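User: Batch of two.

Assistant: Item 1 of 2:
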Amino acid sequence: MAAEKMAMRGISKSFGNVKALSGIDFSLGRGEVHTLMGENGAGKSTLMKILVGLCRADAGEIRVDGEPIRLSAPREALDHGIAMIHQELYPVLDMTVADNIFLGREIRRPGFGRLNLVDVRAENAKAALLLAEMGLDAAPTARMRDLSVAETQLVEIIKALSQGAGIIVMDEPTSAITERETERLFFHIGRLKKAGVSIIYISHKMNEIFRISDRVTVLRDGCLVDSRPAAELDPESLVRLMVGREIEDVYPGRGRIAPGEPLLTVRGLSDGRKFHDVSFTLRRGEILGVAGLMGAGRTEMAECLFGLRPKSAGEVAVRGNVRDIRSPRDAIACGMALISDDRKQKGLNLAGTVGENIGLLGLRSFCRRGVISRKLEQAAVDSHMSRLGVRAESSGTPVAALSGGNQQKAVLAKWLLAEPEIMIFDEPTRGIDVGAKHEIYLLMNELAARGKAILMISSEMNEIIGMSDRVIVLADGELAGELGRDGLTQEAIMALASHL
């Protein structure tokens, strides 16, 4: 291993009676990519929060370049050359892209004494160079709230890379970006390694791990399971270490299906900005995948179908009847559900409990003479928590305290209470571990077998191929083509997505 850059020794942390970390040892070599793995709830995020000053350990020490350090705030971590790209994005939405990149380390205008004014022109110019280098087509002056999730994630990556840190923690950095942007990120990772920068990489994507990792450490239930060179592992052994059991097929097959009648028919749908003239049919009992590069208009199309975005042209028919869907209320009344690409911002009430989130869409059915029956609500919530395997101490647990996989299951449970027939999954497994992914895939197959119609948007090519019965591909906001199972390959999808 390269000379040691950072070491965490005997790190322990408890939250109340819950032991989050138990005596963890974790080290990082100079110019090394060390991947940290484990199921959601294994302790990865807690360990990294301690490293970047967001959380204090109960026991243990951290050394950087051989010297012990004490961290109580992210600013102190930055002072020691430690930066983090967080999985959950928290940009300042009403500030510009440049403002967010240089937040907390603004470029000041010289010659203004105590006024200490920000040099906006210099920030915009430097931000433009950084954006161009990463290949992100966004203006430095654009407001963050106008960017997509994928574009926001790229801005966060740019911000961390621009800080000149010697240690960078990347928590699921490719969860919302396409293969093309991932390739660009890997190029920058290679360049950083050559410059001696050390990277802690957290991901659930096996192809990424074996491509860029020098070493892999696995946590399970807050304990260190193993740490060894990536060359000594393979996907099967890594899954066993993570989940403590075999997972036969990540993408459980359903065999050939005979789809039923059309439940959703889309003709010439446009929003006038992000996508144009999209037409397709979604049938009962099938999973229709939607593929495309970042900016292709996939999420915007889903939001338009669900009434979150106004349409400028086209029509939507549900069970053969044209419907005017102008709001999510209209969509829900048509039997539709949207599991969005950003569960924290769009799918959950983070201030509420697990039960309050799951029961939200079923409140009307729990009412008796205008009063909510808590008994009926609790029974329904408990039933759906059990059915989907939501792991929480109780339905009264704050939903913000759950792992990403369990939060996603809570979102699904909420929608299933509404008994939809048409389900739109936008990035259904973003940022969740391989075990939780497998459970989501099994549920999707079960729903399709029960006659639900599923529209699945995903940036993961293997997920699209592994789960879809058919795939439509969007490119530059237009429908580029459709692929059946027989012609469903990465090359065929990329050819359509790239207009080749």
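Item 2 of 2:
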Amino acid sequence: MISWGIIGCGNVTEVKSGPAFSKVRNSRLAAVMRRDAALAEDYARRHNVPKFYTDAGKLIADPAINAIYIATPPSSHAIYAIEALKAGKPVYIEKPMALNYAECTEINKASEIAGIPVFVAYYRRALPGFVKVRDMIISGIVGRPLHVKIELFKPPSEDEINGNLSWRVDPSVSGGGHFFDLASHQLDYLDFLFGPVRHIRAFAINQAKLYKAEDLVSATFLFDNGIAGTGTWCFSAPPSSARDIIEITGDRGSIRFSCFSFDPIVVENNDGRTEYINEKPEHVQYYLIEQVVKALTENGTAVSTGITAARTSRVMDEMVREYYEK
């Protein structure tokens, strides 16, 4: 039985992940930690969790806890992950894996030394609709993949317009802006489909001047297997221009789908146009957590590890590098 302790029981853990730890076989959520005792106790009560802590070190040291889920902002991921690994406990880390690629490398080094695995919450690698897309590509439904295009345009929030900024646009806490929070899912999924990105040309700028982080990133990139990619991420677009598109073009057709809105998957090829449901489970991390638990208890395999997730951080770092070197 894997008895999980959560460090940082904020919004992401309420539905997306937290309840899944007790719904997966051979797994239970045994303790949570939040610095605010009242909030930690409230979470534990609402989710039927037996213990709560206000000190992460005490949760990690609890002998009843044998795996740690780190759901704090990225600036503390490496600190808690390395502490847990040194305590002999595997970790499941929210994405992005850490503040930057260098910290990812430190986590993976600690994992190697301890002989303890690291997993990262890039759960689209395990979601049924996204697995279906991968299976369709492998089956050759659109022929040989040639190009992938990402477009993510979102308007700024009212809080951002009014100067009430969240940690997600504070590079010292998140690693960058919304690009790090959202594009990480897309780029990691492309790594799942096509393997590592090797060549990158990109620029990042701040157009709306609402915060210090980049709000637009434009990139071209090339995978090891010769598949080319382009991506544009804009977080200061008008609502009328909002879009969430990933389109894979092959030499016999294309697959088009969304990353965040779970719109139908659209395939167009010589057979015509076909739509497939992109299922959104109640707890979107369930399938990946199930894989992680099987990896820890049944010698199974999980598709998102510290090694794969570090590659995504390396790509993001390179795409915004010049912006932060100014």
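The first strand starts at residue 2 and ends at 7.
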